[in-house]
Specification:
Layout (H helix, E strand, L loop, with lengths): L20 H7 L1 H9 L5 H12 L16 E5 L4 E5 L4 H10 L4 E3 L4 E5 L3 H8 L5 E3 L1 H21 L16 H12 L3 E4 L7 H12 L3 E5 L4 H12 L4 E3 L4 E2 L6 E5 L3 H10 L4 E4 L11 H7 L15 E5 L8 H11 L7 H8 L10 H8 L3 E2 L3 H4 L6 E8 L3 H21 L8 H24 L3 E6 L2 H11 L3 E4 L5 H12 L5 E5 H4 L10 E6 L6 H8 L11 E8 L3 H18 L15 H11 L22
Length: 628
């Protein structure tokens, strides 16, 4: 196995240009053998390749040669620098690879690049001793280095002395996040784990600086934002619905949802907002979608999609672990278009485009850590009770198993006809299993009610939720996608006050935008499972958040000896990896990626070995979270 340091050394030439030595070892080990044995390859790369093959540690700085000449750098202005050096192919390759946004000035015979890259240039060259710089460039370097150092300190602070004029005090770690945004010059991403109160961070930053603020969020979270703004500032927010707003244009806080931004874009841009806050910012990860074009703008159609104009921007997301780096690019580009302004260069370095594997993610973390702050519950809320997951096994009778096998055979038959396994064929067998779980679910819920406890029940499908709602009548509240915002909030309020003891939520509609229930409920039941691990975590964290005083119990209903067990086994493994991954990084494992393909492969290999004519590796991989 390669040493971890080999994943930090990027090769600047050849067919694997931009890939780390460790990643090359994982993909094509023979290429490293060739590098280590070819005399024409520079010595430092031959040695680095050999060390990678042997699993030895590599000093990343030693993998690059010291420049054979000094480079000259001068400031054009505060945002642009010029660099000159005699032609040196190796140095030129390194410069072009490391520095985004560079342009060749033919008149001056030099390269120009964004000033924010000055620290990166110094690191690339191995120190300031290899640079002749004018006084203005030295001052830019000093300030940029100081800013990054300050942000590194702020990221790990427990508390902050920053004064925030809100009616209610912020938690210490929330104040730290506000300070981080301040030092990041008002353009940052707060990626705290779900349940830590990112909403209050956004409100706090706007309140401290008296900024006229536009909040764009999912429709389901609009009432929560309106309520929190009143609680923390005493001010009423203006809500934008359809084509127009409800209230005065000079109010400090304005709230709208992603789906109506386009209808009001011209008027919104005439409002001269100081701050744009995007809640659940992963809604914008694909810039080709209409909602992303309306909010972020679209460079190919600037007149039609200019985007929302604001000097400052804060992205809020509890699930920053994205499936592909390419989905992070558009958010990073909006936050800092100088550093992230070349899409091709970005995907070449980090992968994730059209099926390409991701790579160099540690490098991406280093590049983005002055834009992103992330904390997890275990670090900042030590008093928050732990969360325990349990499986509830539902026994299947012989007649049930016979019917189950009929459903399973029908499923495989349909997959053969279609030529590949598809998610669209799964509801039939899953709904059959749900029918077998309802009696057991009623037993469990009755036991919790007898003990004076409330419970949240989640399902992908609406039918079992409606059956339970009919059974429990006024004791239960149903939250599904077709519910209006007003009725949805009424149900949430009834659960938060303890008026209702049972919350029946579809996973798509009830996994976000809900707060306050944790004061009354500490138990969650999943009647079935979805293919994306983060959807379950979001749903669990409706009760595992600030305000919870009890240990949270999560139960998954599993029909024994059925595909439920395959789904649960894979979901547990994905969740285990998520729970142990090093937090604080923008991107790591594919937390938001469906495990459907893995499920199909395991099911067909372990259970139905006769399915030889359907390619399981062509199973649907991209599965959107349900929205019902």
């Amino acid at each position: 196995m390669p040493h971890t340091s080999s994943y930090s050394v990027l090769i600047p030439f050849g067919k694997f240009r931009g890939l780390s030595l460790g990643a090359i070892h994982d993909r094509q080990r023979n290429y490293l053998v060739w590098l280590s044995e070819t005399p024409t390859i520079p010595k430092y790369w031959r040695e680095a390749a050999s060390k990678t093959l042997l699993g030895e540690s590599i000093d990343p700085s030693s993998a690059l040669p010291s420049p054979t000449q000094k480079v000259s750098v001068e400031a054009v202005n505060g945002k642009t620098l010029r660099i000159r050096f005699d032609y040196d192919r190796g140095l030129l390759e390194r410069f072009k690879y490391a520095i985004d946004g560079r342009t060749w000035n033919g008149d001056e015979k030099c390269w120009e690049f964004p000033a924010v890259h000055i620290t990166k240039l110094v690191d690339m060259l191995g120190g300031t001793e290899y640079i002749d710089a004018d006084d203005k460039t030295k001052e830019i370097y000093r300030k940029e280095k100081e800013r990054r150092s300050d942000l590194d300190v702020i990221r790990v602070k427990d508390d902050s002395d920053i004064e925030i004029p809100t009616k209610l005090p912020l938690f210490p770690y929330q104040k730290v996040a506000v300070e981080f945004i301040e030092r990041a010059q008002g353009r940052a991403m707060v990626a705290d784990q779900m349940g830590l109160g990112k909403t209050v961070v956004g409100i706090g930053y706007a309140a401290k600086n008296h900024l006229k603020t536009l909040i764009v969020c999912p429709k389901s979270t609009v009432p929560g934002w309106m309520r929190e703004i009143v609680r923390f500032t005493g001010k009423n927010a203006i809500c934008w619905i359809g084509e127009g707003r409800l209230g005065r244009s000079d109010a400090q806080y304005h709230v709208t949802n992603y789906d109506v931004v386009g209808k009001n874009l011209k008027e919104l841009n005439r409002m001269d907002f100081d701050l744009l806050i995007c809640d659940e910012a992963t809604y914008l990860k694909n810039r080709r979608t209409l909602r992303a074009k309306n909010v972020l703008g679209y460079y190919k159609e600037r007149r039609k999609y200019p985007g929302i104009k604001a000097k400052f921007c804060v992205f809020l997301t509890g699930t920053p672990v994205l499936n592909r780096p390419v989905e992070a690019y558009h958010l990073l580009n909006y936050l800092d278009s100088q550093r992230f302004n070349n899409f091709f260069h970005f995907i070449q370095r980090y992968g994730g485009w059209r099926g390409q594997e991701t790579q160099n993610l540690d490098d991406l973390h280093q590049r983005t850590k002055d834009l992103i702050i992330r904390r997890v519950k275990k670090d900042v809320l030590s008093e928050l009770p732990e969360k325990q997951r349990n499986d509830l096994i539902v026994e299947m009778m012989p007649t049930d198993m016979k019917e189950y096998h009929n459903h399973l055979n029908n499923l495989f038959r349909r997959w053969r006809q279609l030529g590949k396994p598809t998610v669209a064929e799964m509801p039939g067998i899953q709904k059959f299993l749900l029918e077998k779980k309802i009696p057991r679910a009623i037993e469990v819920i009755d036991g919790l009610l007898d003990a004076g406890k409330g419970v949240l029940v989640f399902s992908v499908y609406l039918e079992p939720l409606r059956k339970l709602a009919k059974h429990y009548k006024d004791e239960a509240g149903l939250v599904i996608g077709e519910l209006s915002s007003k009725k949805r909030q009424a149900v949430i309020d009834s659960l938060s006050s303890g008026q209702k003891k049972i919350g029946l939520f579809s996973i798509g509609a009830g996994s976000m935008g809900i707060d306050g229930i944790q004061n009354q409920i500490d138990t969650v039941l999943f009647l079935d499972q979805w293919w994306v691990p983060s959807v379950h975590e979001q749903a669990e964290d409706r009760v595992h958040r600030i305000g919870q005083n009890n240990k949270v119990q999560v139960f998954y209903f599993i029909c024994e000896n059925t595909l439920d067990e395959y789904m649960r086994e894979i979901l547990k493994e994905k969740q285990r990896i998520i729970d142990t991954v090093v937090d604080g990084k923008l991107i790591s494992i594919a937390r938001d990626k469906s495990f459907y393909k893995e499920f199909v492969q395991k099911l067909t290999q372990d259970y139905y070995k006769d399915l030889q004519d359907v390619p399981t590796d062509s199973a649907d991989e991209e599965v959107e979270a349900p929205t019902n």
